[in-house]
Design goal:
Blueprint: H1 5-12, E1 16-19, H2 42-56, E2 61-65, H3 74-83, E3 87-92, H4 111-131, E4 135-139, E5 143-144, H5 152-168, E6 175-179, E7 189-190, H6 195-203, E8 209-214, H7 224-233, E9 237-242, H8 259-271, E10 281-284, H9 293-312, H10 316-324, H11 328-339, H12 344-353, H13 360-367, H14 369-376
Parallel strand pairs: 1-2, 1-10, 2-3, 3-4, 4-6, 6-8, 8-9, 9-10
Antiparallel strand pairs: 5-7
Helix pairs in contact: 2-9, 2-13, 4-5, 7-8, 8-9, 10-11
The structure holds 6-deoxy-beta-L-fructofuranose and manganese (II) ion (2 copies).
Residues 139, 179, 214, 241, 285 line the site of one manganese (II) ion.
């Protein structure tokens, strides 16, 4: 089935942000398997990310995680990225790997620790100034393991106070994006467990504070596209962390576990005007524990592109008519027709018309890049989880 000119122009503008940590070695708490050719520093991570963009033209920005991507000269890192045809995107803070944060960071009752956590975020904003990044993304590992361990309410109040101070430091177009996650590493309560809490916290800050939706951060069975719709209605959907999961926060390749869910999410994003809306960042948040990392990222952005094309193929008029006629099965069939449309041949043709390889996975494999980095780089770094 040919793709319509409207679909093609939406796809033309599609941009997916890659996480620098996807290129480092990662694993589970049982074992981190090293991969030949793994980057040894942030410069090499960006070089690898640029390969994904080279073969897909879909991934022009790279997100950093601080301190995993700490460098002496962020302006140099920015120039390096730009020389490779990409730019630096979201800056992710990290308050989950320091002993001081064992019982909390931005919510902590100890002012010294809370100060340290706030200062880390202010430093991240300094980095944003140097990298030209728009978004500061905050995910908090804070919570408690046993009922009675923590004062749930006081922690919400302290969180708001901390966020106020961080938000006040933003300038110009800069934004604060607050990510939620229902559990892990805390197992009884988490301070930002759901979209509602994130929304309440960011709404109290102001216009440039938004919610980040990580697709792996919900209880099984959650209707994620409903949350997408609601956040877009409220004008507060700031970004996605895309990945897929079978069980918990698996961080597997987006669209691998449940392509239909990805389709439903992208359909709802489009319904809410989010595919063309620069306020919504489409980021990946994945780890490639056993597969090769660059092809893993190429596969991921292609999965998002394919499901976007299918979501754009939904016949909106037919769907509207069926819904108004209470034609339950007819409406469902309209959606399923689009979902079952194989857009791959049309996308391959379109890629060729733009001077790209029809099959980016094969083109990357044939490029020799993987062999070159495997020979050149020894002792690549962990993504950060085991660091
Ligand atoms: C937490 C999370 C968050 C972190 C990333 C590495 O589970 O999704 O986005 O920054 O993983
Ligand atoms: Mn995430
Ligand atoms: Mn996660």
């Amino acid at each position: 089935m040919p793709l319509t000119p409207e679909t093609l122009s939406t796809l033309e503008a599609q941009s997916i942000e890659l996480p620098s940590w996807a290129f480092g070695n990662s694993g589970t708490r049982f074992k981190v398997f090293a991969t030949a050719g793994t980057p040894r520093d942030p410069f090499e991570k960006i070089a690898d990310a640029a390969q994904v963009n080279r073969f897909t033209a879909l991934a022009p920005t790279v997100a950093l995680h601080i301190p995993w991507d700490k460098v002496d000269d962020y302006a140099a890192l920015r120039r390096h990225a730009e020389d490779l045809g990409v730019t630096l995107g979201t800056i992710n803070s990290n308050t989950f790997q320091d002993d001081d944060y064992k019982f909390g960071a931005l919510t902590h009752h100890d002012d010294r620790i809370r100060r340290k956590a706030i200062d880390h975020h202010l430093e991240c904003i300094d980095i944003m100034d140097a990298t030209g990044s728009r978004d500061l993304k905050i995910w908090l590992a804070e919570g408690s393991n046993y009922p009675g361990q923590a004062d749930l309410r006081a922690r919400q109040d302290r969180l708001q106070e901390s966020l106020q101070e961080i938000y006040a430091r933003l300038t110009g177009e800069q934004r604060l994006v607050l990510e939620y996650k229902f559990f892990e590493p805390a197992f009884y309560h988490t301070d930002v467990p759901d979209w509602g809490t994130s929304y309440v916290q960011v709404a109290a800050l102001g216009e440039r504070a938004m919610v980040c939706l990580d697709t792996g951060h919900h209880a099984p069975g959650t209707n994620i596209e409903f949350i997408v719709m609601q956040l877009q209605r409220l004008g507060k959907l700031g970004s996605f962390d895309f990945n897929s999961r079978f069980y918990a926060d698996d961080d597997l390749i987006v669209g691998a576990a449940d392509p239909f869910q990805l389709f439903r999410i992208l359909f709802e994003v489009n319904r809410g005007g989010g595919l063309q809306n620069p306020d919504v960042v489409f980021m990946l948040d994945q780890c490639h524990n056993v597969e090769e990392k660059i092809p893993g990222q190429i596969r991921s952005v292609l999965n998002v592109q394919e499901m976007t094309a299918r979501a754009l193929s939904v016949d909106g008029d037919a769907l509207d008519a069926a819904q108004r006629a209470n034609d339950v099965l007819g409406a469902n069939a309209v959606l399923m027709d689009a979902f079952y449309t194989d857009v791959r041949p049309a996308l391959a043709e379109w890629r060729e018309s733009r001077g790209l390889a029809a099959d980016p996975m094969a083109a990357y494999a044939a490029s020799g890049y993987q062999e070159k980095i495997a020979a050149d780089r020894v002792g690549g770094v962990q993504a950060g989880w085991g660091a």
